[in-house]
Each structure stands twice: as structure tokens, then as C-alpha cells.
Description:
Elements: E1 2-7, H1 12-21, E2 45-50, H2 54-59, E3 67-75, H3 87-101, E4 110-112, H4 119-132, E5 142-145, H5 148-151, H6 158-172, E6 174-175, E7 195-197, E8 202-203, E9 214-221, E10 225-232
Parallel strand pairs: 4-5, 4-9, 5-7
Antiparallel strand pairs: 1-2, 3-10, 6-8, 9-10
Amino acid sequence: SITGGADTLNDIFMHMCFSKTGVLSHTSDARPFSKDADGTVLGEGIGMLVLKRLEDAKRDEDKIYAVIRGIGTSSDGKTSAIYAPDSQGQLKALKEAYSQAGIDPSTVRLVEAHGTGTRVGDKVEFDALKACYSEAAGTNQTAIGSVKSMIGHTKAAAGAAGLIKTVLALHNKVLPPTLKAGKPDPELDINNSAFYLNDESKPWVSESKSHPRRSGVSAFGFGGSNFHAVLEEYNHCK
């Protein structure tokens, strides 16, 4: 099957709607999880992915870029506003994804976060991630980032963009950077977590022979529609 997302609507009306929420960056740069973050930037994009059962893809000798191990979903329920996220709702999606995948989150070395670049939204998301990865607190071993620092928030295509970035990272064994982030927001207390804000592209060296490279991808929509996918590199799944 073919799936993905498309968003090519960035007209003046769309910018006026978003400006009313106060989430747009005044510096025109999205800096997810950064001390200099001041909002998000709107983008456009179309991203498509081909999904196939692993056994069928192996049988047909397809080129396999990554394997989806689990997907978690949840809703925040009633909140104070449509654009006010809730960490408990997001945590539910995270836990469901790793439970379905049957893996320990501490074995994940890359998280492609929703990471819009808004201080409040990023902190809520980071709090949920810290709670999910609590057993690895203080290890700073998992790179966290967001493709929105490069292409902006592509809205309906944002989830597809995050998946594509992560699939290519697994396939090419590269930890991709988050641009312009600089130093992390001190409110995140990132040094007492499992994460570090990765600001440069570097080889993804696997330190474990017991499991393949693994990654998590989050996509959190307006109104508290939460999704998290757990991905794994393919070569260990043959």
C-alpha cells in the first residue's frame, strides 16, 4: 500500500490563522528544543511511503529501507485549547508503541520528535519522552531532533517527513542533525534525561550486537491526536 501526507496550502489565510495562535516564530527559524526557540515556521510538502508486509517484501526481493515494529496512538481528550498538548496523552501513545513493538525504549538511539519549535509544546513533548525513557535517565545516549528545523512545519505532511527522514537515517546508518538549535532549552533539564540534542550529522555506530539500530518517530496533531512509530533497520531482520 502507498501512504503519506500532502500539504501545499500556505496562503495568507493560513498564515493569518496561525498568527492568531501566537505559535509562529518572530525570527523565521524553527529551533526545536533550543534555548532560542521562539515558535514554528510553516512549510509545504508531499511525502509518500510504500508499505508492505515484511515477509511479502522479502519474497518479492524488494528494496527494504526499514521495518515498522510498532505504532501507538492516543487522544489527549479535553484540554484547555486545540493547540495545547498534554504530556499524559502523548505518553500513552509512546507506551503503546513500545509495548506493541516488544522492545525497551532504552535500546532506541534516535527519536525524531514532533518538535515544532514552540517552547511550551516542545517541553510538553519532552516531558512525555522523559517519562517513557525514565529507566535510561541521565545516560544522554539517545539523539533527539526534528526535521522541522530544516523544512518547517509541513502540517498534514509533517508525519510523513519525519518518517522519511528516520527511515533514511536507519538505512544509511547516519544520525541526522537538527539545524540552528544550538544549546538546549534549560527548562528541559536535558542532562538528566536519556537524550541529547544532536546538532551535527555523524555516523550511527551501533554499540550492541544483540539488537539492530532502532528509532522512534512522533507525530502529534492539533487537538491531541498522538502517534508514535517504532522503527528498526532491516539488515538484522532477514
